[in-house]
Amino acid sequence: MFLPTPARCRRAAWSLLTAGLLCLFVPAWAQAPVDASATEAADADGPDATDTPDAAAPAPQRQTPRRPATQAEPRFALDVQAPDDLRELLLRHLDLQRFVRLRNLDANELSRLLLELPANARSLLGTQGYFSPSIEVQHRATEAATPDTEAAHPLGTVTVTVDPGQPSTIRSVEVYFRGPIAEAPEAQAQRESIVRDARQLVGKTFTQADWDRLKTEAVRGLTALRYPAGRLETSLADVNAEAREVSLYVELASGPSRRIGEVQIEGAERYDPAMTERIVRLAGLTPGSEYDLSNLQRAQQRVIESGYFDAAFVYVEPGLDDTEPLPVKVQLREAKRQKLVLGVGGSTDNGARLSLEHIHHRVPGLDWRAKTVLQLERQDRLASTEWSSPIDAEGWRWISDLKLARQLDGTLTTTSQRVRAGRAQDSETYDRSFYLQYDRARTDSALLRSLQGVSTDSSLTANYAWTRRRFDNALSPHSGHGLAVELGAGYTLGGDRQPFARTQARWLSYWPLGQARKEASSTPVHSRLGRLALRAEVGAVVARDNAPVPDTQLFLAGGDASVRGYGLREIGIPQADGSVTAGRYKAVVSLEWQRPIGGDGTRRTPLEHVVFIDGGAVANRTSDLKPQWGVGTGVRYNSPVGPLQLDLAYGLKTHQFRLHLNVGFVF
Length: 667
Fold this sequence. Notes:
It contains ten helices and 29 strands. It is α+β, with helices and mostly antiparallel strands.
């Protein structure tokens, strides 16, 4: 039999007493208000894993949201007396500004900060070329007579008076080279270019921004060609405060010269990776060639412009072995195999335009690209399909197209068909193509049909086209020139077969006015005088007078991109019904002055004012070429996708004003 001992009886009694006390106090503790801070701390740790929902538990009490913290009042006022540009610099970057609203800042700590203020101000002024400034710091305590003032600035006002003196100018810039670039004869032009760009700062006021930019551009010029691992070894700005002169020193370490290795394609699934590799190699990235950053950028641009890819990234990764060639990596995001585009637009020449375009990047069984376009305008109708093969190792591709068109010019309707087949080569600078072309044109005048009937002519020609572009910007040029020439020869078809030759040439040149130069940042500085744009076009068809050459092989002038002040194709051979027909000779000339609106002269502004004079003539004999002139003015907006130009022109022959809208630049 088990009998409890006295000790066990005492422990049992204490247990019963403790349990009774808990039963008395726990309900009151559970209903007591919960401290908000304790609740937030618990929530931050998250619910306990053993907690379970209890339907009988009372709903939690609604918590009062905390008020947002108010910004502390300024402990003192900071007044900077300095020239406006330097005042803004000091107010923004002085270390003392960080302590203006420090709640527990006292007078002793402020006094310590004021001892460091002159050195901090001198450092900031030095970034703008002021190395001998006079700086005076005054601390005026708040008077107790004005309680409001004392509450606003308990520690008073700090006044900083700055006399910056004269700024220091850059006396000299010296660039030193270390590594293979220092002696390599093939890098002489590269060294000279880096030094020449750096020394453009000589004679200018020293600023830290220009100094940093000089070093950045020097490293960029070093690593852009042959030496991708180049770096800035040392740099020094030697300041002579008394003479107010600064001497700059830069030392560049080139590292080893590197060459291009094999091309590695990533992301090619729909389209043949060999095509992408050919595009990259045509941009200059051939195995064994010198590393050139511009070739990488050119290859990336050409891959994107091929139309087969939505995005492309071309780069190299320097390996650990400096003697190995650098592999070129091409990362691709391919475009969809097919694309359908519905377009709505318009022009002052042809009114509203509705177009439908379908592109198939890889026609089954042929692997060619097919582009089909349907276009509807006020005066023109167009249906065309163009097929082209992928480029070969030399950049050539086979081309073929079929074009059906209908043009309405007053009472004259021209319906035409064209078939073309040949080869073409496109690049940044040159375009070339040669092809056979069949033309058929039917001309019908509603008023003269009973007298002249309906004329239908056709021809077969062999053609060569060549285009050369040398513009500083492909989208919105400021300087440079372009030339395009077309040559063709063939026979008219039908009952009367006669030989004929056709040629056409276009020339466009931009002539900047005043001095154009580059800053150390390589940003072009354009003259406020703007530039002149000179455009000329000539065309000729050489044949017997009775040769039935199709109208689509002849010439017309007038319109937004031809002779402003006249309608589209309004300049030609006058007819008895008031319409005009195409002629065998054409001459067009245009002189335009493009001048920036606003700006400070350091960069090209988006808006420009334009004044122009255009002239054009069309005739069947050169002796009958009598130009019709148009003059006018307009505004141009240089958007990221090209210029948008709105012109108001006056035709000197028609005595009428005409509005012209032209978008984009294409040559």
